[in-house]
Structure formats: structure tokens, C-alpha cells
Fold this sequence. Notes:
Organism: Marinithermus hydrothermalis (strain DSM 14884 / JCM 11576 / T1)
Keywords: Oxidoreductase
Largest sheet: 7 strands, mixed
Oligomer: single chain
CATH topology of the largest domain: Dihydrodipicolinate Reductase, domain 2
Order of helices and strands: EHEHEHEHEHEHEHHHEHEEEEEEHHHE
Distance between the termini: 43 Å
Domain Gfo/Idh/MocA-like oxidoreductase C-terminal: 135-329
Protein name: Inositol 2-dehydrogenase
Number of strands: 15
Family: Belongs to the Gfo/Idh/MocA family.
Amino acid sequence: MKTFGTALLGAGRMGREHAKNLAGLPTARVVAVADPDPEAARAAQRLARAERTYPEPEAAILDPAVEVVVIATPTPTHAPLIEAAAQAGKAIFCEKPVALELAQTRRVLEAVRTAGVPFQIGFQRRYDPGYATARDQIDDGVIGEIEQFRAVGRDPAPPSLEYLKASGGLFLDQAIHEFDTARFLVGEVLEVQSWGAVRVDPRIAELGDVDTALTLLRFANGALGVVENSRRAVYGYDIRVEVFGERGKLVIEALPKTPLYHFREGGYHADHYFFFMDRFKEAYRLELEAFFHAVAAGHPPTPGPEDALEALRLGLAATRSLKEGRPVRVEEIQ
Length: 334
């Protein structure tokens, strides 16, 4: 079994999660961790059992022992780091998004194609056992022709205002996962209609963003869908998907976090996932495992460049729909 020299770029929240998972992959040998914060870099180095640290990600990319880069840096740095890694001939795994603008995303992904290097975007839900099994059953025709789709995504609390300023807005930061799920389970989307409001934190309105949203989807295969998003669910991370077809429906929902119900006088108690990091803990491991397997086998990793691009187009279409108060066909987003 081949082992790939790997550089982890970014030692923040997602970087630490990837560090733990990389340490457990027999196909990955973490050569380096790069982060401008030396303390964070050393902490991730210990988790990943990495050989060394760099203050600059570019230095890690150019390390001759590095064959694969895992990018978990802040969003504005993704595009230049992907381009640098592609030019250096490294296989690339990158957290979403590639960039917040379509033209920049296209340019970067064209650099990846020109270099001929493997690329995977971090839509981890595709590797969650519930989502993956649902896709298999849909492909097997278990529920017949799909008629309706519904996805709910609610975070326990809004991110910091500093984070929100650079996030691209709710549709590109949060709802983009639901949009990718829609494509993954149902197919391409032709048209969206979005509504949004500020119901959680008035300061979010000052950023030109919303914290509560609803998006209607019209799919190319004739199915209809709805996506609900909120930045606040006081009981924890609230996420579910329903795919309804002519012969039944599939529901993806993980409740409770611990498979235990305490029945007592007056009812019962169960716990709940609080954040996406614990809800999709297994999916984060499985997506990296699949990426390294694809690189070793010489197969294109998935989700790939096209998925990164099309999810972004849906997010941009939803953003335009909200701002212009009208349905937007995805083909308008060029």
C-alpha cells in the first residue's frame, strides 16, 4: 500500500479535525503542518504526528517530500493555494469553497485541469453513511421517480461577525451544503427562488446578510424542492433531509446523538448533536479515506471540480434571487 507524503495547510478548527483523521489513515504520512500561528501549528502537528511545521503554506507545498495537500485555511486563501499546489503537481483536497466568485473559481479549477492533478472539494455529507446509502437506494430505484426534496440546516448559533464578513453570506457559507446535497441526491437544479430575513442578530443585517432563509428549487427532472436554513437552533445542530418519490420516501436524520432514551415520569429525555463537527465526525474521516484511495488508484476523486463549481452557482443564484426578489434560473449565473 502506497503512503503519500501529505501537507496539512491550516491548523484551525477544521485543520485539527483533519489532523486527527490523517493520523489514522494508513495511506497518509503527514510530512508538514503549515499555519502562521506557531502554537496552533504545533498542536496540529502533534495530532497528525507530522514531521515538521511551516509558518507559510507555500513552503509546505514546495516541500519535496509532499505529494498531497489538504487545505483547511480561511476561505480567501483557498484559490491561491489551490493554484500553487496545482502548479507544483500536488494532489489537492480543499475545504469548500474554492472561491466566492464564479470567474475566480473557474480560473482556479482550469489550473487544476491543466496540471492534471487530482482534486476533491470538501462536501463531507456525501460520505455520511445516511447520505451515501440514500444515494445508493435512489440509484437502485427504491423510491421510484423523485417528486419532492426537502433539506433543513440550522446551526446552534451564528458564527462571529468577523467570520461572517468574509463568508460570502448565508447561501455561500451554510446553505451551499444543502444545495450540494440536492444535486447529489436528486440532480441538477434549473431555477431557485429565495427569501431571507434577519430574525436572530440585527448586526447580521448591517453586513448585508440574512440569518434565516428559505429557498425553493426546481430540478431538471421535474422534481420540486425546498431548503430551510437558520443560524440559530437553541437545542443544537438541526439537520435532516427528505426525498419523496412515487414509491415512498427516504429520511436522513441522526437522532439522538447517544442511542439512549431515558423514559421517566412526565416523558423521556434524549441528547442531541450540538454541532456539525460531531454530527459528521465519521464523514470527515471517510471523505479523506476516499480521496487517498482515489489518488492511489488513479481515479478522479469525488466530489470534484464540477461539483465545486455547480454548488457555488446555486449559492450565487439564491443570493441573486434574494437581492432581486425574483426566481433566478441557474443558467443566468455565468
